[in-house]
Amino acid sequence: MSETELAALALRWYDENARDLPWREPGIGAWPILVSEVMLQQTPVVRVLPAWRAWLDRWPEPAALAADAPAEAIRMWGRLGYPRRALRLHECAVALVERHGGEVPADLEQLLALPGVGSYTARAVAAFAFGQRHPVVDTNVRRLVARAVAGEPDAGPATRPADLAATEALLPAEPAVAARVSAAFMELGALVCTARSPRCLDCPLVDRCAWRASGRPAPTGPTRRPQRYAGTDRQVRGRLLAVLREATGPVPRERLDLVWADDVQRARALAGLVEDGLVQVVAADVYALAGDRTGPVLRL
Does residue 295 lie in a domain region? Predict the structure, then answer.
C-alpha cells in the first residue's frame, strides 16, 4: 500500500469521525484558528472550548486584543495553564497590527516571524486557515507516523527535521487535500493511535501499520512520567496569579504571602512570574499583572 493510499484512508476516516469543533468550521478565519492552536498546546480540548469562545467574543480580531492591556489577556486566560501563552498571544496581536494591518498573514515565513508562533503553530495556521501543503507535526502526528510508517512505538520527546520530512512524504500534492490529511493525522493520533491505549482495531491504517505488523513492540527508552503538579512551583505561581487576576488594583506582598506557607518557594515563584513578564512590580512590595491599568493598591 502506498503513502497516497495511507493518506486516503486517514482522510476517509476523518470525514466520518472528526470531532465537531468550532475552529474547524468553514470560513472561521485565520485569527480564531491561531488562537485555538495556541490554547491547545498542552491543554485538552474540553478545557479550551469555553476559553476560546470567551476570548473570541471579547477579541474577535487581533486589533481588539492589541488595543487592550496585556493584563487583560492574562485575566482572560484564567486557569488554562502556561499563562505565558496569553502574553505571547497579546504580543502576536500587536505585531499583526503593526506589520500586517491587523490580518494574519498566509505566508509561512511571516507566520514564523510572529511572537509566540513556533514551527508547529505556523504550519498549522498555514494549513488549516489557508489550505496550504505543510507537514503539521505535533506529538500525536509524530507517534502516528512513527508507528504506521517506521514501525517504532514512539517518536521521541521532540519534533525533528526527520519527523517533518516523514510526514510531508505522506501528504497528497493538492494543497487543500493535504491540509485536510494533516488534520486527519492529528485526529487519528489524538483519538485512536494514543500513547498508552491505542485502539488499533478501530484504526483505518490497521492493515498498513508497520508497528502492528511487527507485534507492537514496547518502547525501549525510559518511560516518561506525567508531570506532578501538587506542591510544585507551577501550583504556587497559579495561586499567586489567581490573586492578581481577581484583584481590581495592585496587590501588596503581604496579601500574596497568604497563598502559600513556604516562604522560599513562594518568593521563588513570585520572582519567576516577574522575570517571565507576567507580573510587574509597581512599588516596593506591591505587584500587579503585566501592563495592568487598574486602580489603587488593595489592602488586607
Answer: no
CA-to-CA distance for 215 and 217, rounded, in angstroms?
Answer: 6
pLDDT in tens, 164-206: 999 999 999 999 999 999 999 999 999 999 999 999 999 999 9
To 10 degrees, the CA torsion angle through 171, 173, 175, 179? -10
Q: What is the pLDDT of residues 207-259, one digit of tens each?
A: 999 999 999 998 876 656 666 778 899 999 999 999 999 998 899 999 999 99
Whole-prediction pTM: 0.91
CATH number at residue 265: 1.10.10.10
Nearest to 259 by CA among 243, 247, 272, 276: 243
Helix%, strand%, coil% for the chain, nearest 5: 55, 5, 40
Is 270 within the bounds of a domain? yes
Rg (C-alpha) for the chain, rounded Å, is: 22
- Annotated catalytic residues are 37
Full residue range of the structural domain in which residue 240 is found: 233-289
| Rounded Cα–Cα distance for residues 236 and 268 (Å) | 9
Whether 282 maps to a domain, the answer reads: yes
For residues 180 and 209, give the distance between their C-alpha atoms in angstroms, rounded to a whole number: 20
Does residue 10 fall inside a structural domain? no
How far apart CA 134 and CA 17 sit, in angstroms, is 23
If one counts the domains in the chain, the total is 1
